[in-house]
Design a protein that fits this description.
Shape: globular
Bound molecules: adenosine-5'-triphosphate, magnesium ion
Number of helices: 10
Distance between the termini: 32 Å
Order of helices and strands: HHHEHEHEEEEHEHEHHH
CATH superfamily: P-loop containing nucleotide triphosphate hydrolases
Oligomer: single chain
CATH class: Alpha Beta
Number of domains: 1
Structural class: alpha/beta
Helix content: 40-55%
Number of strands: 8
Radius of gyration: 19 Å
Strand order of the largest sheet: 3-4-5-2-6-7-1-8
């Protein structure tokens, strides 16, 4: 029987033996890394799944770990948290949980996994963080990044930012291009994902057009060359706190929504 020590040292083997999860080569690199990571990855490549496994492995084999999962919204953080809690159930260690609800759990070994909203106001107060996952990191507000970063300072914890690009803006783009040696960077275009077929990609390129295709599947930080205002300026002018004067159901909105959701339904169903 493989020992606990072996699984602690080799998360790739642990994932294979415990979950029949066979990593793509880049996913093995993620699981084995002990550095700060930026994953610039295609839609549906498997980034959330492997980061969920990373969190679970850390929680199980390093007692008293504090692991935070944040994203632009609590719904998205909860999606990743759900992957983690499904793993806990699959391993049959649910009864070892002292506390278990939709957004946080505490394991019997003292490790805690907590999912958080993307609003910097609500996430202050954690210290001694060992692992911080920022899912959909290209869409998080910059303040969130600057708010959570100090939580890792004393504990010397790791940050993992995972995302598909969303324009040349924000901390995800900035750290990817200018973040220096602080990060290990892994780029995962759709061609590196064996579950996304060439035929699908060709069809998708025709359907959504070059601009979206480059962003969603080729890891390209796209920006239109003829736009008057930069993404950063437009984004800075937006606020979720102000109710729209009129219901927004424009064609442009529905096009953006359907382009964003399309890959979920076309590559083997929902993740
Ligand atoms: N190594 C693997 N072997 C088999 N299936 C995998 C593997 N990695 C990921 N998957 C599956 O691929 C699908 C997409 O995974 P996941 O949700 O992690 O992708 P994602 O990159 O986070 O997607 P999105 O861009 O929508 O956020 C899921 O059904 C997941 O179970
Ligand atoms: Mg995801």
């Amino acid at each position: 029987m493989t020992s606990t020590l072996c699984y602690a040292l080799d998360p790739v083997r642990w994932a294979a033996d415990k979950f029949s999860f066979f990593c793509d080569p880049w996913q093995a690199q993620v699981l084995r890394s002990n550095k700060n990571l930026i994953l610039n990855a295609s839609r549906q490549s498997g980034k959330s799944t492997v980061c969920g496994l990373t969190a679970l492995h850390r929680g199980i084999y390093f007692p008293n770990s504090l692991i935070l999962v944040a994203s632009p919204s609590i719904r998205q953080s909860s999606e990743l948290f759900k992957k983690i809690s499904n793993g806990i159930h699959q391993l049959g260690i649910r009864s070892d949980l002292l506390e278990d609800n939709r957004t946080s759990c505490t394991m019997a070994n003292g490790s805690r996994i907590i999912s958080l909203p993307g609003d910097e106001k609500y996430i202050r107060g954690f210290s001694g963080v060992n692992l911080l996952l920022l899912d959909e990191a290209s869409r998080i507000p910059d303040e969130l990044f600057y708010g959570v970063s100090p939580m890792l300072s004393v504990s010397k914890g790791r940050m993992v930012m995972l995302s598909t690009p969303f324009g040349k803006r924000g901390v995800f783009h900035q750290q990817w291009t200018e973040g220096g040696d602080a990060w290990e960077r892994i780029e995962i275009p759709a061609s590196l994902c064996p579950r996304i077929s060439q035929a699908f990609l060709e069809e998708e390129r025709k359907t959504i057009g070059e601009w979206w295709f480059a962003q969603e599947y080729l890891c390209t930080f796209t920006e239109t060359t003829d736009q008057v205002f930069s993404y950063a300026d437009v984004n800075a002018a937006l606020s979720d706190d102000i109710a729209p004067l009129f219901p927004v159901h424009s064609r442009a909105d529905s096009e953006i929504l359907s382009t964003t959701l399309q890959p979920l339904f076309r590559i083997g169903g929902k993740s």
